[in-house]
Amino acid sequence: MFGPHPHLFNFELRPLEQIGRNPVWYWLSDGRYWIAAGGATLYEMTPQRLAYYRAQGDSEASPFAEYPVGRLHEDLLQILPAVAEPIPASVFERFSEPGTLIARFAEFAGEKSELDGLREAACRWWWDRYLTAWHLKAGPEIQFRREGEEAVLAWDDSARNEADGLPAWTSPAGEFRLSWGLFWGEVEDFHARFMRAMAERIAEARAKWPAESLGPDGRANLDYLLTEQAKREQSLAEAMAKPRTPTDWPAVLAAMERAEAMLAE
Asked: How far apart, in whole angstroms, are the C-alpha atoms of residue 171 and residue 215?
C-alpha cells in the first residue's frame, strides 16, 4: 500500500545534539518528513537535486523535506475538518476538472470583476483541501479530499517542479486512492507516533540541557515544554471537534454554473 515505507505519513526527528539549545516545542520537532502515496513518495527530492546539495558541501543532506515535523502536523490538522466532508458526486460530474475552472478564473481576473465573488463561492471548497508547502523551496501542493468512502491524494506541480535549476521532486504529479477508514487510521497513527516521539524528545532535552545554560528563563521554558506537549496531544481531537459550517453544495454548483456562463461570453 505504501511502497517501501511503513506508513502514509513518515518522519524522523533530527538528533538532539544537532539542534541548537532552543527550548521551544516547535523547533524541537526539527527533522525530515515524507508521504508514501502508493508507488510515489511525496516530499522526496530528485537524485539530481540531492547530488547538487551534497556537492555544495551538505554531505548529510536528506532526500526528504527537512523542516520541523510540527509544520506538517499543524498544516494537516488545519485542513482535516474540510477533508473529512465528502464531496458530492454531482460536483465532479458537472466539473470533472475543477482546476481548469480555477485556471480560467485567473485568466480573466481583472477583466471581469464579477468573477471575483464567484471565484470564492465556486472554488473555496477546492482550495480548503490543499496541503501547501510554501516553506519549502518549490514546495508541492497536495490536495486531500473525500469521495464517498474513499480518500484521494492528488498533486500536479509539473509546471513548477524546479529548484536550483533542477527537477525538484521525484513525483511531480499523481493520484493515490485508499479507503477512508484506512486513511483516517493513518492520520491517527501519525498523530500518535509524532506525539510519542516529541514526548521522548522533551524528556531528553530536560535531562541533557541544564536550565542555567538556557538563560534566566531556562527552567520556566523547560517546564513549559510539558504544558505545550499536553496541549499538542489533544490537538487532533480539538481540530475535529471545532464547529464547522457544512459546505452549501447547491450554492457551490450554482456559482460554478454562473462562472461558466460568464466565461463563455
From this structure: 45
